[in-house]
Design goal:
About 25% of the residues lie in helices and about 20% in strands. The chain is built from 5 helices and 9 strands; from the N terminus they run ααβββββααββββα. A 5-stranded antiparallel sheet has the order 1-5-4-3-2, with no helix packed on it. A 4-stranded antiparallel sheet has the order 6-7-8-9. Helix 1 (about 10-35) runs antiparallel to helix 2 (about 40-65) and helix 1 (about 10-35) runs antiparallel to helix 5 (about 310-315). One of its GO terms (molecular function) is sequence-specific DNA binding.
DNA sequence: AGGATTTGACCAAT
DNA sequence: ATTGGTCAAATCCT
C-alpha cells in the first residue's frame, strides 16, 4: 500500500497517532474518576491532572499536524484536477455547456457515518440530488461554496442510510484549497501550550446555531439542509477575509505556524450540552478533527474528549 | 435583487 | 441500456 501521507514523514503520522492514543487513554482514566460517586479532593486533583495531560496531547498532536500538510485517508492524487476524467467540453457558450462536465474518477475520499448531521465547518453549496438505485433515501451532492471564486475542488455527498435511529453517510472528495476558514462565531483559545492546563477559555456566541435547520423548501423532509454561511460569521474572526478573497492573497488567513490560538473551531450548543470541534487549518479538508464535549450540570463541569473519530481516520494505514 | 436550492436534462462510465 | 454525477434554468428565500 502506498504511503497515506505523501509529503509527510511517517514519523509525524506516528506522533499524531501516538498522541491520539495517549489522549484516549487519559480520557478513559478521567471517565473512571468521574464515574466514581465519591471521589473527594484527591479525585478532583487527579482529574485536573488528566485534563492537563489530555490538553497536552491535543496541543502536541495539533502542532505536528499544523507543521505539515497531513493527508489522512484515501488514495493520493497529484492534483485536484487529477480526480476527474478529461471532459469533452468544446463549446464555450453558457448555453452549450449544459451537461458538459468532468466526471469524477476514483479519487481521494473520506467516508464518515454519524447519527446526526454535524456541521463540518465548511461552506457547502448543494448542486444536486439523486435517487440512487436500491437506496431508500436520495443522495445529496455538495460542492465547496468557493469552488469558482477560489477554485476549491472539495465536494461531498450526503445520504441518509437509516431512519430509526437516523444514520447519515457523508463522503468527502478532494481537499479544500479555499482560504475561507470554517464558520466560527468568536473563539478565544488561551493556549494550553504555556503549561497552564486550566487556562483554556472558549468564548462563543450562543445565538449562532450551527446545527442543520430544516429548510422550508427542501423537498426531502428526511434530510435537513445545510445551514448557509453568513458573511458576518466569517468576518467576526477574520475581519479582512473578504478583502483578501478579492485580492487573492494566499497567506493572510493562515494562522502563524503552531499558533494554536488561531486554530479554527466550531461549536454546537443545545441546552447544557456544548460540543467544540477544533480543526487544524492544514488538514481540515482531510476530515481530521478533535472533538471535545463539555457538559455542565449545576456546579459540575464534565469534559470528554473524543479521540475515536481521529483514530478512525488513521485506521488501515501502517506506519 | 442577489444568492441558494430544486429538479429535469445531459453525459460518461459500466 | 442503465446508473451516477453534474449542469443550469426555474424557483424560492432573505
Amino acid at each position: 500500500m502506498e504511503s497515506p501521507l505523501p509529503g509527510n514523514s511517517s514519523s509525524d503520522l506516528k506522533m499524531v497517532i501516538e498522541g491520539l492514543i495517549r489522549g484516549r487513554e487519559f480520557t478513559r482514566r478521567l471517565k473512571e474518576i468521574i464515574n466514581k460517586p465519591l471521589g473527594g479532593e484527591v479525585a478532583t486533583i487527579m482529574a485536573e491532572g488528566l485534563v492537563g495531560k489530555i490538553m497536552d496531547s491535543f496541543s502536541e498532536t495539533l502542532s505536528v499536524i499544523n507543521s505539515d500538510d497531513v493527508r489522512v485517508v484515501g488514495t493520493p492524487s497529484s492534483s485536484p484536477e487529477d480526480n476527474y476524467s478529461s471532459g469533452s467540453c468544446k463549446s464555450s457558450t453558457l448555453k452549450d455547456r449544459r451537461g458538459c462536465y468532468k466526471r469524477r474518477k476514483t479519487s481521494e475520499t473520506n467516508i464518515k457515518e454519524s447519527s446526526d448531521l454535524v456541521d463540518d465547518g465548511h461552506a457547502w453549496r448543494k448542486y444536486g440530488q439523486k435517487q440512487i438505485l436500491h437506496a431508500t433515501y436520495p443522495r445529496h451532492y455538495f460542492r465547496c461554496t468557493h469552488k469558482y471564486v477560489q477554485k476549491c475542488q472539495a465536494s461531498k455527498q450526503m445520504q441518509k442510510i437509516q431512519d430509526n435511529p437516523p444514520l447519515y453517510r457523508t463522503t468527502y472528495y478532494g481537499h479544500h484549497t479555499c482560504r475561507a476558514f470554517p464558520r466560527v462565531s468568536q473563539i478565544i483559545l488561551d493556549s494550553p501550550m504555556d503549561g497552564d492546563s486550566n487556562s483554556v477559555l472558549l468564548s462563543f456566541d450562543q445565538n449562532v446555531n450551527h446545527n442543520y435547520p430544516l429548510n422550508s423548501y427542501n423537498n426531502d423532509p428526511t434530510f435537513p439542509s445545510i445551514k448557509q454561511e453568513t458573511k458576518d460569521e466569517v468576518l467576526n474572526f477574520y475581519p479582512k477575509i473578504e478583502d483578501q478573497i478579492q485580492s487573492s492573497s494566499s497567506d493572510y488567513f493562515l494562522p502563524a505556524a503552531n499558533d494554536d490560538r488561531l486554530t479554527p473551531a466550531t461549536f454546537e450548543a443545545s441546552g447544557s450540552h456544548m460540543t467544540a470541534v477544533v480543526l487544524s487549518p492544514d488538514v481540515m479538508s482531510s476530515g481530521v478533527y478533535f472533538s471535545c464535549t463539555t457538559t455542565t450540570s449545576n456546579d459540575n463541569l464534565e469534559i470528554g474528549i473524543d479521540f475515536e473519530e481521529c483514530l478512525c481516520n488513521f485506521e488501515g494505514y501502517s506506519l
